[in-house]
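Batch manifest, entry 17 of 40.
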Amino acid sequence: MRILLTGGSGDLGTLLTQELQARGDDVANIDMAPPKLEGADFIQGSILDREAVKKAMQGADCVVHIAAWHGIHEQQGKTPADFHDLNVTGTFNVLQAAAEAGVKKFVFISSTSVDDPYSVYGHTKILGEEMCRAYAHRHGMEIITLRPRAFIPSWNRAVYEDYAQWANWFMKGAVHVDDVKQAVVKSIDRLQGDEPLPEPAPVLTVDGAYEYTHDDLNDWDAEGPGSTFKKHYAEDYELAVSSGLDPARKPKVLDISLTRDVIGYAPVFSLKSLLAELREYGLQGPPAPFADRKQQQPAQRKHAP
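Output type: structure tokens
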């Protein structure tokens, strides 16, 4: 199976390339940045270049559309015009090229930022989701839209200066990039099956795993600050505090029941996983699972926890 990744040189695209190639899929990648891994068919170009997108689409059986500016890029100088060009016009170009090439299977990476519909980033993702619904109806395409929470990995030193900064962000409720990768692969497999989708372009929320129960969340810290954390992770309480984490921080947990039903999604990485990594690697955190000199540079921008 030939799978085209747009923006395949980024963190998620690189992890997907590893996974898909390991299981025998043929991977193509269109991106302005060179890939971090060898082996994929690389087309250097922008999704704003329609001819480059058409070239990349040749022979594809499925598209995973990742390329986009994200919320953090608003802090890094990208303008509303930049967001509209890449996230809206670029998405149109990819969908239209797929339709013209007869590629019926499509995974769109949206974002839970659609909950902020008047933000620059959230609005462009709403428009992208609407285009997916239109192309599913108009061209008979099978499209799965995934809405993950922010998933920049802990080892991306262009965003997080250390593991504690990433961990404080994760503790408020988040999804690990490995679980987003899992959701994409399961979506590809679902599209390859014979069973039709429950509706054209279903939208599936992608959240992480949690040890906390509904009762824990409803009665958060009823016995004092940090008491709910201690209920599940007492042995790591001192480690968390000494590492600059806030055990009293209550996560926001999202409903992923439809995602479980449609693609069999089962998130793995949780706060327990995070604490295990903190014990093993300290504030340096785990290394990137691929060589990338950019990941070793000092952080230029801090992602607000």
